[in-house]
Amino acid sequence: MKQYDKLYINGQWVKSDSTEFIEVINPATESPCARVPRGNKTDVNTAVVSARQAFNDWSHTAAGKRTQIMTAAADEMQRRADDLINAHVITMGCPRHLAAALHLDAPIAGMRYYAALAPQMEAVQEKGDLLILKEPVGVCALISPWNYPLHQLMGKVAPALAAGCTIVAKPATQTPLQDFIMAEIFEAVGLPAGVFNLVSGSGSVIGPELSGHPGVDMVSFTGSTHAGIKVAQAAAPTVKRVCQELGGKSPYSVPRARFTIKCA
Question: What one-character-per-residue DSSP string does the chain give?
């Protein structure tokens, strides 16, 4: 069983303030396949403070440097393809022969795509007597779902990094392993401390804390409409930017069947 006993905050693997853990269940075997920390309010606050402190330097880092780091991350994702594929197999039950095409190829391509777009942040547009500049929004709380965990994570993380934002990521409890592998990848390629922070935990606890935290400037949430309403309500008092994709559809259930083989 894969075990992560620490969270990734401020460029370091640190113990959670909580002593509890989440057991991740392999849907194919219905047995535990991994264990990750059940983070709490204190962990969220530590991660947000870290992201806030890192924001000034990262937002002023040359776009070319951000491109370089993101491209290195894409290369490392490719190198660790087997690990990322296995994470989808054991936590989602995705057939191994489909995992790369469905869950890995596009996220790697997405990282490269946004890496190439990073220089656009430095472009200045003139309109009459006005100069139009682009600025990163700030600290982004990124809350991902279970169904396309790496897709959704990279769809949020890659543009945020390219724009110069810093991040606190919260994975779904069912599929957290991709996020932990990405934390290892960002550490390996030298992403500055505090730019990417990872707090695993229950959505009902971590979600409201991230959404309502005064140090967070934007929340990106993908999940149920019910939870999305809670996110918007928590974010409203601090007038955060909120970007949401809500409402699941098309569930696919595979019933178990019993077969009796009779020999003549």
Answer: -EE--EEEETTEEEE-SS--EEEEEETTTTEEEEEEE---HHHHHHHHHHHHHHHHHHHTS-HHHHHHHHHHHHHHHHHTHHHHHHHHHHHH---HHHHIIIIIHHHHHHHHHHHHHGGGGG--EEETTEEE------EEEEE--SSSHHHHHHHHHHHHHHHT-EEEEE--TTS-HHHHHHHHHHHHTTPPTTSEEE----HHHHHHHHHH-TT--EEEEEE-HHHHHHHHHHHGGGT-EEEEEE------------------
For the chain, the domain total comes to 1
Residue 257 placed within a domain: no
**Domain CATH number, residue 211:** 3.40.605.10
Residue 31 belongs to some domain of the structure? yes
pLDDT digits (tens, 9 = 90+) for 28-71: 999 999 999 999 999 999 999 999 999 999 999 999 999 999 99
The parent domain of residue 14 ranges over 2-118+138-246
Does any domain span residue 261? Answer: no
What pLDDT, on the 0 to 100 scale, is given for residue 248?
Answer: 67
